[in-house]
Amino acid sequence: MDSKEPIDPLVTGIAGTRLDWDQVPEGVRESIEHFLGRSVSIASSQAGGFSPALASRLTLDDGTGIFVKAIAPDEVSGAPGGQGIYRREAQVAEALPNTVPAPRFVTSLEADEWVVLIFEEIIGAPPILPWQRGELNRVLDAMATLGSILTPSPISAPPASFPGGSNDWASICLDPSALDELPGLDAWARENVERLSDVASTAKSAHHGLTLLHTDIRADNILLTSNGAVFVDWPHAKVGAPWVDLVYFLPSVAMQGGGDPQELFWDHPLAHGADLRAVCSVLASLTGFFIYGATQKPPPGLPTLRKFQLAQGIAALAWLRQMMD
Predict the structure, then answer these.
(1) pLDDT in tens, 112-171
(2) Which of 176, 196, 215, 230 has most Cβ atoms within 10 angstroms of its Cβ?
(3) Residues spanned by CATH 3.90.1200 within the chain?
(4) With respect to CATH, is domain 21-120 assigned 3.40.50.150?
């Protein structure tokens, strides 16, 4: 990351370029139209999200709307593990009960080495940024409903644990000087890396619970509808404590002008009864994931990923310091 590059506080996670419909190989487009039994008359690419792939609302020749995602082989897209993530998303989306506020899954298919997911179209729009309090309240209310619907988890999913698979603060401890290259990072992080590693070390058990979690709720994974909010993109679903999704969500809210995560968290129904030490541990592990990620080179197809991780990491660190001091 360029140490002189400013961080956009409203960065939404858009990385690289989304593909337009006519940039997808003809054989893939033909396979989609063959499955749908109709031709595409209008394609509107959706900007939000990370993967350098197709994410498009399609209007078919009979006026029907549909939503399609498609990604090339990883060596072409430049997104490590991208196709595996899409395949996992298909498995989760197919298994989610209809009561979950998520897009209804239609099918997945593979054509010309591309992975394609097809969903029913959701009539809605992403939240306005910076966050408007009324819209944020709608999302927070929907998250409370989501936690109720998904406890206990209605599907099989891995247990929630360290976001990156291990304690990333422990990795940072091996070379804390890497933090000096991150613009805008509070020096407190460098001064407390061992303490932060110790707090995060219990995150595996701190995540424990019975709720199916999205684990990647952000503004660009939310559509506001006339009935509330719909949560999209479920490939990282895990099972854990009901408040974990709230911890994972609120740093992005703070980063994008939505208010104090400390206040928003403890006032929320999902946080009722949450253990402070467990919350600190989970938040520390999430913060380490973001900040360690920001010290790494970006994957070829995701050029702004590290900037986005740093922006979230700075917001998460400020909240964590507030709870630890």
Answers:
(1) 999 999 999 999 999 999 999 999 999 999 999 999 999 999 999 999 999 999 999 999
(2) 196
(3) 133-324
(4) no
Confidence (pTM): 0.94
CA distances in angstroms from 275 to 137, 206, 214, 282, listed in the order given: 24, 9, 21, 11
User: Can you read off the two tokens belonging to residue 227?
Assistant: 């009935």
Residue 179 structure tokens: 């933090």
Q: How far apart are CA 104 and CA 122, in angstroms?
A: 9
Which of 48, 6, 15, 7 minimizes the C-alpha distance to 255? 7
CA 72 – CA 65 distance, rounded (Å) = 23
Helix (H, G, I), strand (E, B) or coil at 231: strand
Please give the Cα distance from 201 to 4 (Å, whole number). Answer: 32
Q: What is the pLDDT of residues 134-147, one digit of tens each?
A: 999 999 999 999 99
CATH of 133-324, one of 3.90.25, 3.30.70, 1.20.1070, 3.90.1200: 3.90.1200
